[in-house]
């Protein structure tokens, strides 16, 4: 299934239960995963060259998912990103598209849609 040349999927979410659930799902599918509890932790600790794609929550206390991706883009990092949100407004979808975010996934997450993104992270698909 996953052909990321042993590179990891990074999950950034401030909710421990969501992070654990996503880690379990991805590892059960044979996907190497590394998790971070905040945007700041990801920016300070992530080994970007070891990451094939990023799954990030929009609503986090330190930085939103969009702010995190914007920071990465300013640094020249063009990782494929799936943004998770409970409320995909038209403005959020527009901003996500402007940042080149490949997928916007609505909560509750559809596991198959997430796994499809992991399999083909470069394909853009916003609802």
Describe the 3D structure:
The chain is of the alpha/beta class and 127 residues long. The chain has a single domain (8-119), classed as Rossmann fold (3-Layer(aba) Sandwich), CATH 3.40.50. Helices cover 38% and strands 20% of the residues. The chain has helices spanning 16-28, 39-45, 65-74, 90-98, 111-119, and strands spanning 8-12, 33-36, 51-57, 81-85, 103-106. Strands 2-1-3-4-5 form a 5-stranded parallel β-sheet, sandwiched between helices. The chain starts with 7 loop residues before the first strand and ends in an 8-residue tail after the last helix.
What do the pLDDT scores average to?
91
Number of domains: 1
Count of helical regions: 5
Overall spatial form: globular
Proportion in helices: 25-40%
Q: Secondary-structure element sequence?
A: EHEHEHEHEH
Question: Compute the gyration radius: what is it?
Answer: 13 Å
- What percentage of amino acids are in beta strands? 15-25%
How many DSSP E strands?
Answer: 5
């Amino acid at each position: 299934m996953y052909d990321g040349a042993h590179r990891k999927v990074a999950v950034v979410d401030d909710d421990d239960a969501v992070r654990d659930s996503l880690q379990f799902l991805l590892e059960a599918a044979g996907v190497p995963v590394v998790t971070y509890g905040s945007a700041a932790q990801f920016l300070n600790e992530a080994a970007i060259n070891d990451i094939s794609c990023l799954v990030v929550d929009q609503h986090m206390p330190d930085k939103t998912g969009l702010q995190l991706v914007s920071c990465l883009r300013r640094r020249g990092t063009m990782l494929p990103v799936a943004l998770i949100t409970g409320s995909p407004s038209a403005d959020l979808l527009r901003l996500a598209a402007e940042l080149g975010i490949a997928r916007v996934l609505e909560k509750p997450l559809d596991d198959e849609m997430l796994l499809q993104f992991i399999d083909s992270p470069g394909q853009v698909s916003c609802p």
